[in-house]
Amino acid sequence: MSRALQVAKVADREKTAARLLKSSADKFYDPDIDIDWDAPIPADKHFHPEHRISLYGTEIWDRLTPEQRLELGKHEIASIASTGIFFEVLLMQMLLKQVYKHDPTTDHVHYLLAEIADECRHSTMFGKACRRFSVPAYGPRRWVKNLAKILPLLGRGPSAYAAILVAEEVLDRMQRENMADPELQPLIRMVNRIHVLEEARHVTFARQEVAKGMARAGWLAKHYHRALTAFVSYFVALSLINPKVYKAVGLDPRVAWKAAKANPHFQETMRFWGERIMKFLTEADLVGGPGMLLWRRSMLLAT
Question: In this structure, are residues 198 and 26 in contact, taking their beta carbons and an 8 Å threshold?
Answer without folding.
Answer: no
